[in-house]
Amino acid sequence: MEVDQYTNVSSEWSYSGEGSRLPLIDESSALGTQAPKDRLIAVLDQVEMRVERLRRDTVRIEEERDSLLSTLDSVKHSELLSDITECDKEDITRYADRILARAMTVEVAVRTDRDPQQEEALHQVNLYIDQLVMSVHEDAVIAHTRCQTYMNACTSQPDPGSGTDKNFESAILGCTLDDQKRVKKRLQGLLDYFAKLNVTTCS
């Protein structure tokens, strides 16, 4: 079977840079100095490294998308809207909605293998956070305080000014490590959003 041949450098494959395609094997070429098993393992090592980098890049894109959506939401609910005319407010809203529609066409996801218990734990965590998000416009101060208690459950150095939500802590500890990291970043994004709104926690 003959496959794409790259520049020969002491073997039948080579790597030409960070953004290059991975090499493919030409089974008709000379065996070279490495045993066939070692050569195949070397390629698999490279593939595994690139897969992990792809997962990291996808997670970063997910986080960037969430950040953009949070910013759009903060614009649509900004107090500055009360200082402009209704006509200008409609222009701003239409502009934000147009960007939001474009943003929603981007779908990225990194799948994490979970057992049934971990799936249930993540479901519970998502329910807690979804309820938190829905409560923001009802009482931002209480929502901010609750968000901080959730964040305290995700860190070894909690904010001394607020407590820890034990129910959320129990749920997050049942999640995979990847999910725990992702949830922590999501909560940090919400805390950053509250900071933009100049919302403080309950005393």
Automatic annotation (TrEMBL):
One MF annotation (Gene Ontology) recorded for this entry: protein-folding chaperone binding
Keyword Translocase tagged: no
GO biological process entries: protein stabilization
Coiled coil (residue ranges): 37-71
Keyword Coiled coil tagged: yes
Keyword terms: Coiled coil
The name this protein goes by in its record: BAG family molecular chaperone regulator 2
Organism: Papilio machaon
Phylogenetic classification of the source organism: Eukaryota, Metazoa, Ecdysozoa, Arthropoda, Hexapoda
